[in-house]
């Protein structure tokens, strides 16, 4: 992905100024929503290492396998609960739109985030109908 192109998370900033520094480990996500957006971006650009690193250590899988044929189109943040710079926990509800096997689909999830060693980490999520 071109560093100057729009970030896949659709926050409105160039990739290099938005999620790329988080994916490269140059800075932590300041909020739970920022971590959610960066994780979506990792799916969109195919960065399983970042997904694994941003998972809470108590739930982190040994590997993350991405489907190379799955294409992520856009992310909608439905709501956030806590998860700010001074919080220790947060919830982000989102809908991620994608195409797989030639069919459009979406993933609607309510995700929980917690701070681990001062940085936001993805704890788990519940897929919504």
TrEMBL record:
Domain of life: Bacteria
Organism: Nocardia bovistercoris
Name under which the protein is recorded: UPF0225 protein IT779_05820
Database matches in InterPro entries: NTF2-like_dom_sf, YchJ-like, YchJ-like_M
YchJ-like middle NTF2-like domain residues: 31-125
Pfam family, one: YchJ_M-like
Family statement: Belongs to the UPF0225 family.
